[in-house]
Amino acid sequence: MQTTIVKWGNSQGVRLPKHILNRVHLSDKDPVDIRVEGDRIIIKKINKDVKHQTIQELFADFQGEYEPTEISWGEPIGKEIW
Q1: SS3 of 37, please?
Q2: Maximum separation of any 2 CA atoms in the chain, in Å
Q3: What is the pLDDT of residue 1?
Q4: Residue 19 domain-assigned?
Q5: How many domains does the chain have?
Q6: Who's near 33: CB < 8 A, 6+ residues apart?
Q7: What is the pTM of this model?
Q8: Domain limits at 23?
Q9: For the chain, which ranges sit under pLDDT 50?
């Protein structure tokens, strides 16, 4: 099936036909996760029964290096409390 991207406010959108949503058990106001993989946009239903992940679970596969650093935001300009 082909469709087109249409302007929707300040964004763009794609209409998904009901028969396609029914095939993947999605309906109005279901939460979804949207991600980009290469040149594909993946829309996946969020399982409401899944608990939120801890920070350790979120970064379990992280292979990079991390060095915590302080960031200087400069001197106060207004009535900031430091």
Answers
A1: strand
A2: 58
A3: 86
A4: yes
A5: 1
A6: 43, 44, 45, 46
A7: 0.53
A8: 6-58
A9: none
